[in-house]
């Protein structure tokens, strides 16, 4: 089964966020075809959470997991460390006071 390119996924994710009036910005543009993605969710209160895609080793399913959470500066530092390891990394920053990121919705979960 062919996989979606990262660019296609990012564009579709941002479109879904726009439908819910949730602002999102690409703060690091990685490889269009196969770059990994980090989603940073900021409730605009000085804190943040960063999510990355991982595999559940027991089921083999792909799922979003928390990479870092806490003060926004610490989350940004964790993201910057990841960018240092992976120059093809995409970073999407989602800003929503209610903490919505939509990663738990169908089509984005797995």
Present the secondary structure layout.
Elements: H1 6-19, E1 24-28, E2 37-42, E3 47-55, E4 62-71, H2 72-85, E5 90-95
Parallel strand pairs: 2-5
Antiparallel strand pairs: 1-5, 2-3, 3-4
> Which strand order do you get reading across the main beta sheet?
1-5-2-3-4
Strand content: 25-35%
The arrangement of helices and strands along the chain is HEEEEHE
The gyration radius over C-alpha positions equals 13 Å
Which CATH architecture of the domain at 24-95 is right?
A: 3-Layer(aba) Sandwich
Which class best fits the helix and strand makeup?
alpha+beta
The CATH superfamily name of the domain at 24-95 is: Protein of unknown function (DUF1491)
Query: What's the β-strand tally?
Result: 5
Number of helices: 2
Helix content: 25-40%
Largest sheet composition: 5 strands, mixed
Cα separation of the termini? 15 Å
| CATH fold descriptor of the domain at 24-95 | hypothetical protein tt1805
Low-confidence stretches: none
What shape does the CA trace take? globular
CATH class of the domain at 24-95: Alpha Beta
Assembly context of the chains:
single chain
Describe what is shown at a glance:
This protein is 25% helix and 33% strand. It is α+β, with helices and mostly antiparallel strands.
Structure description:
- The protein has 2 helices and 5 strands, in the order αββββαβ.
- It has a domain at 24-95: hypothetical protein tt1805.
- A 5-stranded mixed β-sheet has the order 1-5-2-3-4.
- 25% of the residues lie in helices and 33% in strands.
- The protein has 110 residues and is of the alpha+beta class.
- The protein is globular.
- It has helices at 6-19, 72-85, and strands at residues 24-28, 37-42, 47-55, 62-71, 90-95.
- Strand 2 (37-42) and strand 3 form a beta hairpin.
- The longest helix has 14 residues, at 6-19.
């Amino acid at each position: 089964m062919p996989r979606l390119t990262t660019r296609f996924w990012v564009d579709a994710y941002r479109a879904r966020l726009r439908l819910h009036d949730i602002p999102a910005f690409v703060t690091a543009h990685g490889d269009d075809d196969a770059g990994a993605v980090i989603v940073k969710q900021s409730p605009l209160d000085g804190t943040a959470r960063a999510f990355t895609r991982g595999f559940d080793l027991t089921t083999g399913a792909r799922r979003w997991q928390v990479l870092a959470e806490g003060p926004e500066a610490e989350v940004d530092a964790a993201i910057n460390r990841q960018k240092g390891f992976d120059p093809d990394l995409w970073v999407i920053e989602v800003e929503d006071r209610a903490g919505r990121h939509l990663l738990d919705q169908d089509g984005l979960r797995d």
